[in-house]
Amino acid sequence: MNETTDHSALCAEHLRYVLRIADGSLILAQRLSEWCGHGPVLEEDIALTNIALDLLGQARLLLSHAGRLEDRGRDEDALAYLRDEGDFLNPTLVELPNGDFAQTILRTFLYASWQQVLWEPLLESRDPTLAAIAAKSRKETRYHCEHLAEWVIRLGDGTAESHARTQAALHYLHPYVAELFASDADDAAAAAAGIGPEPATLRTAWDAAVLPVLAEATLEVPPVTPFRSTGRLGRHSEYLGFLLAEMQSLARAHPGATW
Amino acid sequence: MTHDAAWAALAAVPDPEIPAISIVDLGIVRAVECDGGQVTITVTPTYAGCPATELIREDITRALRDAGAASVTVRTVLSPPWTTDWLSEDTKARLAAAGIAPPQARADDAARPLVFRPRIRCPRCGSAHTEQLSAFGATACKALYRCADCREPFEYFKPI
User: Which of A42, A86, A173, B39 has the CA that lies 20 to 30 A from A100?
Assistant: First the structure.
């Protein structure tokens, strides 16, 4: 391989590494925004949509950066609104339906905790833009984790009904957690180039952040299964297509629309 | 346009969501460069998704044009990330006077436990006998509290 080939190969892996993080924020933002006007109480309606707004802010910064890395003239809007399902690289966990409030809170807590342990090593990234986005997002994610952890404990260690719903949510969501820590060749190449950590290396820190909260919430962690979801490879659950159809409908029906 | 004149014009631009303080007080103006009539302003966002960012860019451009700048460029930087630790004591006092409790903790306190409820002082009566009503508020940067003594609700500027 000559030097140019090496460089462009790394660019492709670098781009996918950034898109995986960007799409995770974008798709979870879209899911949480579905709660707008539907929260169980006004305060939590505001909380979920504020978290959605922060995630959308992360996604905008990351997708703009991905567009520059790709260097094909696609901006944040083109990447969010004009890519097809198979081009999205978010982990499957974030595209699953919201379910009830317990499932929404628990899923967001599991993913925000993963973001929290991702931002720390990304501060040292050799990609200075990615490091700056991590430094910015880390503080916002921390506040999300605080709020979400309180709710996980309140729901899990609450009434028989709230406990049963939260435990059922953990049973439903838990198989999709494994993907967050499954590294592939793209991750390995990005890690070797100093762009960011391999997801497998984040497991210990995530366990240390999440397991005590689940224990305090009196939730039983299900056994690990061999199932691996594949959203980060672009192979998604049946839910993402419907989500994108709604999220992208206006931009595709009215290209270039502004207001 | 002089450097001082540009800073003075910016110090008169209120934050669109918290008009009691200016964008300079808020700490989001990171640099001012003047080259004749060409002015370049560097800003940093408070929150990554803050919807006021676009409006602030327009307000900056208008204020500097009105002050005599021939052309205005507003550029955005992310690093170092904005923090409430940059708010001056004077700015915090003006937030409190406007009924918004200023941040009452350092943003960079990594030792704070995950679930943490500090006692926030009421900006109206000074009581620490307050409770959180909502962890999130009308803008990304604020939470909502209530004072158990004077019974008034108030906003709290979250340390970040």
Answer: A86
With contact defined as beta carbons under 8 Å apart, do A203 and A107 qualify?
A: no
Looking at this protein, which amino acid is placed at residue A123? L
- Can you tell me whether residue A107 is helix, strand or coil? helix
Q: What is the pLDDT along chain A (259 residues), one digit of tens a residue?
A: 344 445 556 799 999 999 999 999 999 999 999 999 999 999 999 999 999 999 999 999 999 999 999 999 999 999 999 999 999 999 999 999 999 999 999 999 999 999 999 999 999 999 999 999 999 999 999 999 999 999 999 999 999 999 999 999 999 999 999 999 999 999 999 999 999 999 999 999 999 999 999 999 999 999 999 999 999 999 999 999 999 999 999 999 999 888 7
Do B47 and A54 lie within an 8 Å CB cutoff? Answer: yes
Strand ordering across the sheet containing B38-43: B29-35, B38-43, B71-76
Nearest Cα of chain B lies from the Cα of A252 at a distance, in angstroms, of 23
Chain A interface, Cβ < 8 Å to B: 42-43, 46-47, 50-51, 53-58, 60-61, 128-129, 131-133, 135-137, 139-140, 143, 145-147, 149-150, 153, 209, 213
Nearest CA to B30 out of B79, B68, B65, B89 is that of B79
For residues A249 and B139, give the distance between their C-alpha atoms in angstroms, rounded to a whole number: 28
Give the number of beta-carbon pairs within 8 Å between A and B.
79
| Contacts with B51 from chain A: Cβ below 8 Å | 53
Q: Is A234 exposed, middle or buried (0-12, 13-18, 19+ CB in 10 A)?
A: middle
Q: What amino acid is encoded at A184 in this protein?
A: D
Nearest to B158 by CA among B82, B56, B51: B82
CA pair distance A133, A130, nearest whole angstrom: 5
Question: What global pTM score does this model have?
Answer: 0.93
Tell me the H-state helices in B41-142: 53-66, 89-97
Residues counted in chain B: 160
3-state secondary structure of A51: helix
Q: Which of A46, A51, A116 to mutate to test the interface with B (most CBs of B within 10 A)?
A: A46
The answer to whether A43 contacts B134, with C-beta atoms less than 8 Å apart, is yes
Q: What length does chain A have? A: 259
Q: How is chain B split among helix, strand and coil, in percent rounded to 5? A: 25, 25, 50
Best mutation site among B50, B76, B78 for testing chain A: the one with the most A CBs within 10 Å? B78
B38-43/B29-35 β-pairing = antiparallel
Instruction: Tell me which chain B residue has its CA closest to the CA of residue A128.
Output: B79
